[in-house]
Amino acid sequence: MAGLVLRRIRDLVIVLFLVGTAMFFIIHLIPGNPAIALLGPYATQEQIADLTASMGLDQPLLTQYVTWLGNLVRGDMGESIAFSGPVLPVIFDHIMPTILLALGSTVISAAIAVPLAIHAAAKPRSLWARLVTPVTAFGLAMPSFWLALVLVLVFGVIFRILPTSGYVDFGTDPGQAVKYLVLPIVVLVSHQAALFVATLRESMSGELLGLYLRSARAKGVKERGVLYRHALPNALLPAITVIGSSFGNVLGGVIVIETVFSIPGWGQLLYNGITSRDYQLIIGVTLMIAVVYVLVNLIADLLYLVADPRVRVR
């Protein structure tokens, strides 16, 4: 286990270097000057030139990269233009809404997917088993932004029973906080649950053919025990991988959901950084998403040991 953690730390450093380097050069290819975006269309050329120089954007691109990389090694992600302060505190100030969305949708999706997938695999001729394929295909194919707009129209405009934009901190009012998170989590769950059901159903279908389950039934183990105690742990291994990857994908794709529902998380932060040409903020948010993605996959690897003790980390 210690070797696995050390390898993941090594991978994290490599991923951060590659992602940061790629983002640094890519965003500098985007047309536009951050100084113009900050000062507005009525700024004079002299004001633009002074601000550009103060931000170091008048230096050669390679010089800017070396300076940025040196600051990053020291833990300095630079200054945010939009927030007029260090990037790292801004990122941590906006972490909670995104983590709640990603974690909440993943947990709820897994809780929905496990019993439904097991039932579909154990009773392949049941009505639900026959509906699994079209239902999961619809959930996977449905665009998140379209479902978000439909939910806003139905629950926010027509029936007016749920808020459609904004965010309330849990420490302030837990009840209101849940109401504001219902619609965005439903959008995320619609895709995640479909993915989990499809993956776990296929894995369970293969495990149910195992001879060891016949032995368990012959020993008098009830069918529920056969499914949940014997078959499910072995079937969870591919599902754990998918869940870990899905959590990371949610972090990367939450920009659409947070923009539609006006949630002040990393997604909206990244969107604001792009629109204001805030280079340091864009790179900082991207790097933090990469960090969380690697850590979540580390947790997924460690969960293999819990789901199946036969797995050995080498």
Main sheet?
A: 2 strands, antiparallel
Protein structure class: mainly alpha
Shape: globular
Regarding CATH, which class of the domain at 95-264?
Mainly Alpha
Indicate the percent of residues in helices: over 70%
- The largest beta-sheet arranges its strands as 1-2
Q: Could you please describe the fold and organization of this structure?
A:
By secondary structure, the protein is mostly helical. It has a domain at 95-264: Orthogonal Bundle (MetI-like fold), CATH 1.10.3720. 76% of the residues lie in helices and 1% in strands. It has a two-stranded antiparallel sheet. α7 (127-141) packs across α9 (174-207). The longest helix has 39 residues, at 223-261. It is globular, with a radius of gyration of 24 Å. 30% of the residues are buried. The model has no long low-confidence stretch (mean pLDDT 85).
Name some characteristics of this structure.
single chain, 314 residues, MetI-like fold, globular
Summarize the structure.
This protein is mainly α and 314 residues long.
Topology of helices and strands:
Layout: H1 2-27, H2 34-39, H3 45-54, H4 61-73, E1 79-80, E2 85-86, H5 87-93, H6 95-122, H7 127-141, H8 144-158, H9 174-207, H10 211-218, H11 223-261, H12 266-275, H13 279-307
Antiparallel strand pairs: 1-2
